[in-house]
Amino acid sequence: MKIRNYLLAFVLGSTLAFAKDINFDVVGEVFDYGPQTTKIILKFDEQINPKTLDTQTFKDRNITTIDFIDHNNVILNLEHGQNIKDANLLYWDDQKFSNVVIPTNYTLIQTKDMTLENGKTIKKDTYKYYMKSLKIKDVDI
Predict the structure, then answer these.
(1) Entry pTM
(2) What's the pLDDT score for residue 62?
(3) In DSSP terms, which residues pair with 116 in a beta bridge?
């Protein structure tokens, strides 16, 4: 009986140790100088305490500000502009005399612990973040 209980505790403990996947959307916008990624939208199952997030909580391209749609949906505003290389969605190819799509596949890394509204701490290795989709404002893809 003891062996079974230890085995059950080990199996339950092991499954809880695996990171949970969070899929996020990347938003792009079209500017005079071309389309660029401008935002990442994170959707959490649990309510995040906004006071525990800052622009250094995630490792990605430079995150300029953070907005909350509500306590479950977080917008990471990304640095973008004409001379921000990693923001571009296209590049000009002189050989083809055409724009070429740059493959976009973001992965976020959480670098700090977060706290939920209920006070529970979310350790930095609790979630794994993966890009789900790219949505470009005012463009059908």
Answers:
(1) 0.81
(2) 93
(3) 48
